[in-house]
């Protein structure tokens, strides 16, 4: 099945508000459509506010408490879902591992859900996952995140360190004043950690997306 590359769009309503559309292909692989909103984190390096368009995702919630164990537990079922015997879908990026802090009485301090974005051409034409795989296909509405990116290798401790450092920096920032989810984040992986120049991101969900009028003009 051939891949359909997401087309960039030009929305006149967004002009003049520091909002620009990002190309939806990275290293030759399709990724979710999104725009970046300038002006909310001017004093933070490698941090942006990102509005991700509605899309369809294959997800799997792990029973493992450890972040790395959860990634290993869910990766292959999602990988094999994309490379099924009947239908083969093109792989996309990033790999998103969402981590949620749980109440004290829960058996895990954190729970983890891995998700792969479905190619645009498969949003209305995707194979049914098997019951044994525990993979689910979910349509998600538009969401906004504050995103920090870095280049290099990654460990479980580094993931949590970057997450907590980002939260601290948001609290100390003079320009950031958006409400966000205090108990949930995602680690987005664009490359294998062993690849030189591997790109990683921490995504923290915002409570709501800022409107165009709240965004500053481009320089």
UniProtKB/TrEMBL annotation:
InterPro entries: Reg_factor_effector_dom_sf, SOUL_heme-bd. GO terms for molecular function: heme binding. Signal peptide: none annotated. Belongs to the HEBP family. This is Heme-binding protein 2-like. It comes from Stichopus japonicus (Sea cucumber).
């Amino acid at each position: 099945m051939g891949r359909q590359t997401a087309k960039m769009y030009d929305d006149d309503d967004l002009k003049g508000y520091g909002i620009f559309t990002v190309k939806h292909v990275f290293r030759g692989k399709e990724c979710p459509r999104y725009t970046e909103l300038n002006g909310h984190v001017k004093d933070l390096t490698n941090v942006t506010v990102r509005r991700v368009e509605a899309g369809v995702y294959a997800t799997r919630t792990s029973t493992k408490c450890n972040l790395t164990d959860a990634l290993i537990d869910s990766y292959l079922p999602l990988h094999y879902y994309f490379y099924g015997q009947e239908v083969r879908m093109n792989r996309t990026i990033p790999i998103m591992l969402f981590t949620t802090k749980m109440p004290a009485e829960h058996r895990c301090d954190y729970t983890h859900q891995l998700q792969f974005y479905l190619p645009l051409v498969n949003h209305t034409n995707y194979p049914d996952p098997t019951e044994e795989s525990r993979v689910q296909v979910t349509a998600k509405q538009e969401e906004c995140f504050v995103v920090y990116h870095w280049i290099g290798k990654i460990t479980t401790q580094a993931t949590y360190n970057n997450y907590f450092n980002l939260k601290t920096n948001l609290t100390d920032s003079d320009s950031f004043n958006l409400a966000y989810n205090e108990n949930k984040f995602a680690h987005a992986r664009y490359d294998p950690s062993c690849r030189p120049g591997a790109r990683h991101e921490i995504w923290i969900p915002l409570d709501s997306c800022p409107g165009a009028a709240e965004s500053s003009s481009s320089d």
